[in-house]
Amino acid sequence: SLTYLQNRGAAFSILQDQQLLFAVITLVVVIGAIWYLHKHMEDSFWMVLGLTLIIAGGLGNFIDRVSQGFVVDMFHLDFINFAIFNVADSYLTVGVIILLIAMLKEEINGN
């Protein structure tokens, strides 16, 4: 279902009202991901996809935090007890999972 929530914290609403901390961490992660993506554009499609999703999710939440002082979360999974989240959170989560799988695959293949 859709539920409007002003999240002034991180995942699961932890560390409430630490906007400067989140802004700095997000900028460091996004800049690092952009740098890594630029250096490794020739790498696997999955590595590029994972990094792109992480960058998009990070920037989405960053824009909300800077412009509004909070992130708007809206998706509530009624069938399980889980935190309310937004599209950017989904991008970040899926991006990290894809990136971890791509890195594990590279490690196994010896690349």
Key terms:
single chain; 111 residues; mainly alpha; two-stranded antiparallel sheet; transmembrane; membrane; protease; cell membrane; Lipoprotein signal peptidase
What do these coordinates show?
Its EC number is 3.4.23.36. It comes from Streptococcus pneumoniae. Belongs to the peptidase A8 family. Helix 1 packs antiparallel against helix 2. The chain is globular and about 45 Å long. By secondary structure, the protein is mainly α. The protein has a two-stranded antiparallel sheet. The protein contains three helices and two strands.
Q: How would a crystallographer describe the biggest sheet? A: 2 strands, antiparallel
Alpha carbon gap, first and last residue = 43 Å
The mean pLDDT is: 88
β-sheet strand percentage: 5-15%
Alpha-beta classification: mainly alpha
In total, the number of domains comes to 1
The helix tally amounts to 3
Helicity, as a percent range: 55-70%
Q: Count every beta strand, where a strand is a DSSP E run of 2 or more residues.
A: 2
As laid out across the biggest beta sheet, the strand order is 1-2
Overall, the morphology is globular
Order of helices and strands: EHHEH
- Rg calc: 15 Å
The stretches of 5 or more residues where confidence is low (pLDDT under 50) are none
